[in-house]
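ARCHIVE CARD
Drawer: 12
Card no.: 0347
Subject: one protein chain, sequence and derived structure
Cross-reference: see card 0346
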Amino acid sequence: MKPTLTLLTALLLAPLAALHASTWYVSPGGSDTNSGLTAELPLRSIPHAIELSTRTLGPGPLSQPVNIVLMEGTHLLDEPVNFTLSNAWPLSIKAAPGAKPVVTGARRLGGWNAGEVPTTGAPCLVTELPEVRSGAWDFRQLFVNGRRAQRPRLPREGYSRVEQLIPSEEGRNLSTAHKDRFVFREGDIRPWTNQGDVNALVLHYWQHAWLPLTNVDLPARTAYFKWGTVMPLVHSHPSHGVADWIKQETPYPHQTWYLGASYYMDNVFEELREPGQWYLDRPAGKLYYIPLPGESAASLEAWAPRLTNSFTFQGDWRKGAFLTGLTIEGISFRHSEIDHQAHRGTGNWWGNYGPSLLIFSGTRKVAVRDCVFESLGECAIDLAYGNAEVELSGNRFHDLGSGAIKAVGTWRENTPEENEQGRLTQLRVTDNDISGYGRVFPGSVALIVEKPTRSVLAHNRITDGYFTAINCSGGSMDNEDVFRTFDTLIANNHIHDIGEASMPCSNDLGGIYVHGNMIGCVIRGNVVSNVQCSVYGGNGIYIDDCASYLRIEDNLVRDTMDALNIKGRRSQIRNNILGPCGRSLARRASGKTYENDMACIESNLLITTNGALFHFQTGTAPTNTGFFPRGNLIASTTSHLEVGVDGSYGAHDRMIPYGEWCASTGNGAKDTVLPGPFPGPEGWPKAITPGSIYTRHGMRPCSFETAGPRPREQRAPVPFLTTRSEGGPEHQEAIEYAKRILAERSAKNAPKPDVSTHRE
């Protein structure tokens, strides 16, 4: 009888076990009719596992997390998973031991048959998609055999250029010209099949813009688009200046000096002729693909995305109700869609990206570890308002249509109470590897963090993108009185090979870009190299408007346009290796008369192969330096040292000898020019070692061997800075300074000047 009683007891207790279950197993080969309580009887879908948890456990909170264990295979999502306060218990979504699960909101396409492109006659593979024909599905990305396939474009390589802007009012300046239409050159645009599915991708300034085509007036050579760009349709920003070659002699009616924006026309059916290209004929519900050599219908693994966002974790940060204890670990996320309507001008601190794959808002104690994000349309991770105690570590990001991570804290658009509740604090972004970003939207930043407090961005590797690697901001560049960033550390990152001379929107970028008041923030131990630009910018460390009170130390910056691009106020720049660089080692990038206390540049190793140490923006006389070099070690392969004055972003400077400049300004005290000859660029030191000539002349020992992601066994949490700058003396001084600047601006700008006949 005892075995019978035991069996009966087990049967009676089985519902109770399910009722209190906290671990659910999910497998693509499972069934949602299974219990999901064991690896032998797994569920099939992640949403069903969350539904069971909600149904059996209630809204929480619970002391133990709910564990969703993903087994080997590809897990498909039909719609985004939204986790809210109705699921207010700790949640862990992890890979099963030894498994490498993939989560995707895409679908694998089949039914391929040999065919012919109707517009060009090119042999191809074609499949029927009734959901597309009915209007239930549309997609703008296709991933074939592990790579991002390309839609047909015109021109096939390079870019067209806007022939003329169209002024909205006669005689007005270029900023009032229409941004949703332009005059094109003969043959660049014409009426095409499915014209509404064709778009221009405009690349100018530091931005990209996606413009759907609506109408083509061939006699007037004018194209009209569904919406306009953020910036005018010229190559570069007039107030940023441009190299002389970009000026044009033939004036437009509105008298602009600058060439039109670069662009190409994307998704042109009549250009579908090259292997590896694809086209979705939406009205017909047919997908055409021209295979690469060796590809066939049988070997084709083609994935088309259905989702842009896969998971959203949403607390109520305004009411102080947070989701707490969220962990995602060991999972690969693939194949997300783009949101084409979200890209009308993106770059630097501009934040108009589409929804990310993972979105967190109103959360505490979040960790995303050792995951892979690849072949995505938009950003991988978005930390929206109201997040704190977040760890993003050990992840790999590759082949991204946009950026990898964006994190935004609140500021003056909200009430002070909301600012406090929505503040981004104690964020750790460490040991991530980011490569191949901006593949659809090239003006995208790899890692953008706005208004963080007591946060760490460290030991990341970022490479192979067209724009800025790390963007960390302290507020609006138009409002110096906004202070939301304190005591944040940017350390030991390895940033290399970003920007591209042939990419028209690779301008005004930096390896590390900061702006806004950032009291107590430190940039330390980073290695930044090979940052290129199209016309201007291409800086190693870019200190933009109001980026004040920074400590920049122990960094290695080389093979950039300028090692440092300096604005803001009262930064300390010490013990760095700067150079060699293409233009200068430090550049004053502001002509504002009130910015006369930008930075102290002290005890750095300055390496130059062209003799140019510093450059100064137009409007700053040699005596109004803005930053103050002293006690630096100078290693030069040339016999002359000089500085450039009266310069701009692209125009040539007037060069004067460095000694003459020092004598007239009082700078350069205790400089040491090291004896040569010096080796080529490959021989420059990578570290400042004890007892070397550098430390004997006052530099601190420092090493760059730990820059970039660390081996897993060495990934100890990087400590937060121990300073508490908010409310301190520097903060108070900065507030008073900001008030004076805003008052000066207000007086200067009233009344507004008449710009009705202004020429740019």
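Annotation on reverse: The radius of gyration is 28 Å. Residues 160-269 form one domain.
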